[in-house]
Automatic annotation (TrEMBL):
It comes from the Bacteria. Residues 2-72 form the DUF1659 domain. Pfam families: DUF1659. It comes from Halobacillus locisalis. This is DUF1659 domain-containing protein.
Length: 74
């Protein structure tokens, strides 16, 4: 049985440092951008994140991409 996976959705998440809690651990805040083109490359997403970073008040910690796949039998 052959199984295929097709990317159906992608999301860009920018994770920012939002301070430190009472225990001394970093607190993070996430901004999500939905409906990212599934054909977008990692380099393109990094370029977008770099362009958005100066517009933010918080320090950018991490750039993440979350992809959603549909898995089906071929």
């Amino acid at each position: 049985m052959a199984v295929n996976a097709e990317m159906i959705d992608s999301q860009l998440q920018l994770i920012f440092e939002d301070g430190i809690d009472l225990e001394g651990k970093a607190v993070y805040r996430t901004k999500s951008f939905n409906n990212v083109k599934t054909t977008a490359t990692s380099e393109q997403l990094h370029t977008v994140a770099a362009a958005l970073e100066p517009l933010q008040q918080l320090v950018l910690s991490t750039i993440e991409r979350n992809d959603e796949f549909m898995i089906y039998e071929a």
